[in-house]
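Structure tokens please, single chain.
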Amino acid sequence: MISSVNEFAKLRSSQVKEEYDIAAHEEASLEVWQDVIENYPELRKWVAHNKTVPLEILQELCKFDVEVRFFVASKRKLSQELFRLLSADPDSTVRQQIASNKKTPIDILEKLSTDKDEHVVRVAKFNLSNRK
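Here you go.
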């Protein structure tokens, strides 16, 4: 278990693959994740990248820049609320990432298939055709 923000930062910046992988796979407490989010903005996307990060932390990460929201949108374990929130994101790359997510609910894909951005529409229709 990752026990501190400093440990996460060290693991994430390591050149040793085994250490780097720990940052992507090990759990941390809510307090550690919140500390990273508050004090290390450059590591927010890597919090989203972690396989064990809780939904409430993913929800918090949706308040930040487009790069962070893009990483959150790639997660398969999103809640219905997060899928809906990110499918309405002002940035088309985030909506496109939701459209390509294999766990996006069908009703959201159908909505994205009429998006104002042609790339979002194309990806949503492709995902829909593969799911039906």
